[in-house]
Amino acid sequence: MRYRKITLFLFIGATVAVIGQQAVTEAPAGFTTPTLGQAVGPNGELIGNPGTQSVSNGIAEPPGDTFALDQAQFERRHDASTGLGPVFNATSCAECHQNGVTGAASQVTEVRAGHRDANGNFVNPTILINGGANTITGRSIINDRSLCPQAQEHVPDSEDIRTFRAVLNTLGDGFVEAVDDRTFLAIAANQPAGSHGMIHGEAVQVPILEAPGHTGVGKFGWKDQDPTILSFSADAYLNEMGVTSRLKPTDVTSVCKVTSDPEDTPDHLGMADIDHFAQFIRGTQVPPRDTALAATSDGLAGQYLFKAIGCNICHVETLTTDRPGAVINGGAYTVPEALGNRIIHPYGDFLLHDVGTGDGIVQGGPPDTANKLRTVPLWGLHIKSRFMHDNASLTLTDAIQRHGGEAQGVTSRFNQLAPEQQQQLITFLKSL
What we know:
Shape: globular
Structural class: alpha+beta
Helix content: 10-25%
Oligomer: single chain
Largest sheet: 4 strands, mixed
């Protein structure tokens, strides 16, 4: 157990006294959200006996809500009558965010595309649908599925920037959200000095949808395009499932649409789906280590090498969340007791870097982010079978070798290791 010094001052003349400290403890870790596959009734009630094995991180639920209900909503499949589409990639959040347990990363990818204008700036594509009678504009995502043939999207030949994006893990993201933005800014500021100027992560300020007029450090999505979990939930609900909400109230097309916007309306508890999604993600425990593998001699040696060659400059091992009661997200969220003063080990800095695999796409950030991507947090790596932003690397060695740009010095040092040392580092990675 560590202690964070909480400085409370009593001003008596010129006297200042410290009167309190608060414990800083490890966040609970575990794959504790086995997929329920349960139905939700017309009044929001759970049908069957869901949630008997799912365990949250202890977060307090809104009145009448339960972690099981939050998870059931995250897993609920939609159709046209409940707002799905007209264009979409999945019928539920868990259709993509599931591997072993609900909320984890998976092998699923989405398509992104665009082009550059005459000045070299990224431009979102204009997608013709319905025989050319309608268009979808203003976003780089190209959905794979549609409610009807007329709404099906296709990548035009004109869009020569094309990439796949892997589904990201959401387990433990509630703790990431609870880390003070100043922590990420400090990491970005210190990286050049710790890497002879080679590594310089970028923290981007992006709008907080639930707090109009406010921005925050982007932490979620491959381009850090979302600063909060609620913003992320609304963004994904629209762009991955085609469901509109109070934060994203307009569908990208009306072709074959049979519902009225916004489609995500409050239930009997006064909570919309995006509120349940956010509450579920905030209630998940952090991905656990393979502690047996980590404790082996090779695992311990690999951990030393991970730091020695500089992997930990971007894949930051340890972060600490803000205090309980801290008001964040532009005043829209208060850090709850379960998430405050917690130590997490994401092995990521949640900053944008150019490591030579950038896709040329800009989302939320300035033009210089086109070839930058968010550092992959490595927690939960041992339940992943495909790696990097496009899931194109099938081995960890290949993923390391793809690191160039800011990371080329680290990759060079990896290549200088003896073969047995390289395998020790891989063993360590497999324990994360």
